[in-house]
């Protein structure tokens, strides 16, 4: 099981071919890589499943290969528009996911072993991140200056990012690790090594095409698509988009200048449970140089549950956003603007 969705195998993948399985979307949520938090957000799982399926079907119509096969409706696998209710299960093709050995602080992770086990059928151990905008809260603000993207006039004398979202002149693509205990952004050469036989240029091209499709859909429904990511499987020389695409967990969107994504929950914890947020940061820093790679073992704080009013507001936000993005009333909730107003009042 991942932190927010269950993973079921119907036919396992082999060295010679893809398998079949399902994602079962739960109402669990995760922030700061913690894993499952102490409570749940109703309708979140169904929102992510419906929105992810919608985007996969958009991509398929645009000729982008994916691992998506449909959603579960009763005992059948059907296209999203044939589902009678908000789905919570997505049928997918499966690839091999080998173990990634950790060899200690000096040797690091053994990607050669990962690729030796994966052969010609594996999940690429990278997340390919695309950015159209640099919102408040984006990690890019910590790792680069405005001038790095031709935005010399925004940084001022001190080179700082302004206190509002910044549109990038062109989409930026980055690569980060997928299976390490702490995600690392990689220089292109290292990302190419981690990708194995999957070509980094092809990964970037695929990410840019996914970004284009999701961005165009967002614009058509009143959203701004700020950033997101894809994961990919590699099978017999072909890359296919895997995991889930274009949801409020994987991507950042805004509507009328206000953000709609998991970032709402992250910012709530920063403001209301700062001791836990600080403990997470300290644990991630302190694991460096140790023989273990799981920083959670070193964290001496646990997160507080969200207050009921926050849970209700975030639930409505996910559901209302999904209704608007898919242009279908899956959920009986207020519209997006009303849901955003409720979040603003928290």
From TrEMBL:
Pfam families: SAICAR_synt
Pathway given in the UniProt record: Purine metabolism; IMP biosynthesis via de novo pathway; 5-amino-1-(5-phospho-D-ribosyl)imidazole-4-carboxamide from 5-amino-1-(5-phospho-D-ribosyl)imidazole-4-carboxylate: step 1/2
Top EC class, one word: ligase
Source taxon at top rank: Archaea
Keyword Nucleotide-binding: yes
Enzyme Commission designation: 6.3.2.6
GO biological process, one term: 'de novo' IMP biosynthetic process
SAICAR synthetase/ADE2 N-terminal domain span: 22-280
Molecular function, one GO term: ATP binding
Catalytic activity, as annotated: 5-amino-1-(5-phospho-D-ribosyl)imidazole-4-carboxylate + L-aspartate + ATP = (2S)-2-[5-amino-1-(5-phospho-beta-D-ribosyl)imidazole-4-carboxamido]succinate + ADP + phosphate + 2 H(+)
GO cellular component: cytoplasm
InterPro entries cross-referenced by the UniProt entry: SAICAR_synt/ADE2_N
Family to which this protein belongs: Belongs to the SAICAR synthetase family.
Protein name (database record): Phosphoribosylaminoimidazole-succinocarboxamide synthase
Name of the gene: purC
């Amino acid at each position: 099981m991942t932190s927010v969705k269950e993973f079921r195998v119907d036919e396992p993948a082999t060295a010679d071919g893809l398998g079949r399985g399902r994602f079962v979307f739960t109402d669990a949520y995760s922030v700061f890589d913690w894993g499952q938090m102490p409570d749940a957000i109703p309708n979140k799982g169904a929102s992510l499943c419906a929105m992810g399926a919608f985007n996969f079907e958009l991509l398929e119509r645009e000729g982008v290969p994916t691992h998506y096969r449909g959603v579960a409706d009763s005992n059948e696998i059907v296209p999203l528009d044939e589902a009678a209710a908000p789905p919570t299960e997505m049928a997918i093709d499966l690839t091999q996911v080998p173990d990634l050995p950790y060899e200690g602080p000096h040797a690091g992770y053994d990607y050669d072993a990962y690729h030796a086990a994966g052969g010609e059928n594996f999940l690429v151990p990278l997340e390919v991140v695309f950015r159209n905008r640099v919102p408040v809260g984006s990690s890019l603000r910590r790792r680069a200056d405005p001038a790095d993207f031709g935005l010399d006039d925004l940084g001022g004398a001190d080179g700082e990012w302004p206190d509002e979202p910044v549109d990038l002149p062109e989409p930026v693509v980055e690569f980060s690790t997928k299976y390490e205990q702490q995600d690392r952004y990689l220089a292109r050469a290292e990302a190419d090594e981690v990708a194995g036989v999957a070509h980094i240029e092809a990964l970037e091209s695929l990410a840019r095409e996914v970004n284009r499709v999701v961005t165009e859909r967002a614009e058509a429904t009143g959203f701004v698509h700020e950033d997101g990511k894809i994961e990919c499987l590699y099978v017999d020389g072909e890359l296919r988009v895997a995991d889930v695409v274009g949801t409020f967990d994987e991507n950042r969107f805004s509507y009328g200048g206000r953000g709609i994504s998991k970032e709402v929950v992250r910012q709530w914890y920063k403001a209301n449970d700062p001791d836990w947020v600080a403990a997470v940061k300290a644990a991630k820093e302190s694991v460096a140089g140790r023989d273990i790679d799981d920083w959670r073992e070193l964290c001496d704080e646990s997160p507080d549950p969200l207050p009921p009013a926050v849970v209700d507001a975030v639930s409505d936000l996910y559901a209302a956003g999904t209704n608007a993005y898919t242009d279908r009333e899956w959920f009986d909730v207020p519209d997006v603007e009303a849901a955003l107003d409720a979040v603003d009042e928290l």
